[in-house]
Design brief:
The chain is an alpha/beta fold. It has one domain: Collagenase (Catalytic Domain). Helices cover about 45% and strands about 15% of the residues. The chain has a four-stranded mixed β-sheet with strand order 1-2-4-3, sandwiched between helices. Strand 1, helix 1 and strand 2 form a beta-alpha-beta unit. Helix 1 crosses helix 4 and helix 3 crosses helix 4. It is globular. It starts with a strand and ends in a 16-residue tail after the last helix.
Length: about 170
């Protein structure tokens, strides 16, 4: 049984096909949902929750970042929870939106010497955790969120993306 209803929209950018993105998102977000339920005892709504993934380009995400966060620059991923939620609390049936920018993902993957798909997987997990109320605004929050990311990525067969790095708090 599916844990999530995943909606995909390719808005801008040179992304893989919708089918390829859906296959990746199904695998990644279902693994993340299963992990949160099992290890964090994360309650889910009675209905199958919906998450929206929007794939776009740097120009588009820069506009969104400027409008909603007051940061006039592109970023890799933005998450917009449909309802305010705290980790461990029941989210609404619509989890929210995850928006990812192609050029930034590509550039960061090259800088990190990781495959595009591995970095995209990490950003999907990162954005998904934001929809459940996880954040990285201080060291304590960052440690919790990055620990979850690392363990979920391990379930997916990927290495620790933060190994050897300081905690990545939001500037």
């Amino acid at each position: 049984m599916a844990e999530l209803d995943i909606q995909i929209s390719i808005e801008e950018g040179n992304w893989p096909s919708e089918d390829a993105l859906h296959a990746l998102a199904d695998r990644v977000l279902e693994a993340a949902a299963t992990y949160l339920r099992a290890s964090q005892k994360q309650p889910f709504p009675k209905m199958v929750p919906e998450v929206s993934l929007v794939f776009t380009d740097d120009a588009s995400i820069q506009d969104i970042n400027a409008e909603w966060r007051g940061k006039d620059k592109p970023t890799n991923v933005l998450s917009f929870p449909a309802f305010p939620v705290k980790p461990g609390k029941v989210p609404g049936p619509m989890l929210g939106d995850i928006i990812i920018a192609r050029e930034t993902v590509e550039r960061e993957a090259a800088e990190l010497e990781k495959s595009f798909d591995d970095h995209l997987t990490h950003l999907m997990v990162h954005g998904f955790l934001h929809l459940f109320g996880y954040d990285h605004n201080n060291n304590t929050e960052a440690e919790i969120m990055e620990g979850l990311e690392t363990r979920i990525l391990a379930v997916l067969g990927l290495s620790d993306p933060y190994e050897g790095q300081d905690l990545k708090m939001e500037p």
